[in-house]
Amino acid sequence: MGLAELKIMQDNLVLLNGNELTIWATNINSSTNKPVVVILRDDGNLILNHGSNSLWQSFDHPSHTFLPGSKVGYNKKTKTQQTLTSWTNSEDPSPGLFSLEMEPNGESIVRWNKTVQYWSSGPWNGHSWGTVPLKSNHMFNFTFINNTNEVYFSYYIFNPSVMSRFIIDVTGKIKQLTWLNSTKRWNMFFAQPAQSCDVYGYCGAYGACNDSSSIPLCDCLPGFTPRSKKDWDLNSFSGGCERKTSLNCGNVNASILEEDKYWNHSHMRLPIDNNILTIDSAIECEYTCLNNCSCTAYAFDDNKCLTWDGDLFNLQQLSENDASGITIYVKLAASEFSALSSYSIKQGEQEVKGKFQGGREIAIKKLSAQSSQGINEFKNEVILIARLQHRNLVRLMGYCVQGNEKILLYEYMPNKSLDTLIFDERTHALIDWKKRFDIILGIARGLLYLHHDSRLRIIHRDLKTSNILLDKEMTPKISDFGLARIVQGNITEANTNKVVGTYGYMSPEYALDGLFSIKSDVFSFGVIMLEIICGKSNKGFYEREEALNLLGYAWRLWNDGNVMNLVDDSLLESCNEEDALKCINIALLCVQEDANIRPSMPDVIIMLGSKSISISKT
Questions:
Q1: Which domain of life is it from (predicted)?
Q2: Quick check: is 66 in a domain?
Q3: Residues contacting residue 530 through CB under 8 Å, at least 6 positions apart
């Protein structure tokens, strides 16, 4: 195939490909006996002339480049717009998704796909625009013209020796470039929007933008792959991503293992064009989306059910510290959830490590029909964790339920649960005092969030070392909310006829009378503190002489003035006596029989940060 060729044919400028097929033409209706010529002026304007008359000029038809002397605006007589349009990618000049247009008031706006406006220059004030960092005394002289024939803006350069141009590039940004002879390169003077993720659809469908990450800024969501790898290699991401596997929605013969599921994306800027449904529970919100084949994602936030139909655009991954971030659940084909690798059976539950195709590891908790956690407890756990966001609470990635089969997908915790480390003779010595104190403080912060700082006041009711999971940095995460209860307003206690939980961690008032409160969780926290300090389980501890459990033994040592004997021998070198005594004091305050005199979690946090505290001997 030969090279493309630009010709004058029948008074028109025509671009032909190697097969002599027309790619582009000026399409002018003109008949003249005078010769037609093409002139490329020094300012970059390509003009088609016959005699002294201009038939066509490139300045009236800008592509992605705005040169000095050219126009961006609207021709009132021909009713045509002069807009800038991005290339598809850096090697393909065909029209892309981004365009710069002008409003009648002189305001320049940038649109995605000719529809969604994502940037504005602000109105023209006679000298400049509000959001464009160009001053009137700079190198440019901008003009805005509005007459009976046309409305447009143009610009000129004060110093003719300077070469400069504006472009709308493949990333959707407006850039001003100036040529530097010293480097023989175009130097970028400014770009708007300043942040790439502020460009609508910057990463295309199912692409997540992350301004805080290293290049590339875009990444396909798990279960998706770039629609055009070539474009992505050229840093043109607006083509977005496509599913690796089609959804199975509508297949009535699909088993639970073949049904579509959800992948959890936390701390996200949500797409626009959502539907708002009058649904007041996360469970119902999910089922509504799952049973609607056009629904591709949902979010449940502030007691509102948001759903999206079709492709998802303008997703952005925000930092964990950004309070505006919301969790969105994106529908995926079941096959995108990788095969299970290993599992252990525990109380009717399968705890499984798995991996998504994107490489992200997850923990899968499957409850059998014989599990002690019924469907109500299961739904309760899903609803609660979906609403909670804290670094010391385990993160729910997704779930599914059908019949007696119930599956939860959690973030994977490589260091397993706290009990497997501190009660194991092979590993307990590896956790020094500082790390144990950090774990205590992390659990306390998680409880503080549940009791006081979250939108819901939550009593866990089953706090124990096996429900404290540890990530790769040994950050503690409270898990297993199947027995948790929400209490309204300022209510801090309730009662039940069915006592559930784990003996050894239950407060006396709950175990005997079914009365539970935030102080019940405080009691459980105190037990966990003592277990962390001494490296022994309250349930498995038995002091023969006086038939004491761990709590009774701790109180006896305290009253005898020998409480340092409680500290794990492996910690004696890494902790000082003052710190150990402080933590034992706090733990004993938390496990007092009278719930009314136990401290609250805000008090516990303050005491953990103090130098020392004291309690009276009993």
A1: Eukaryota
A2: no
A3: 538, 550, 551, 554, 566, 584, 587, 591
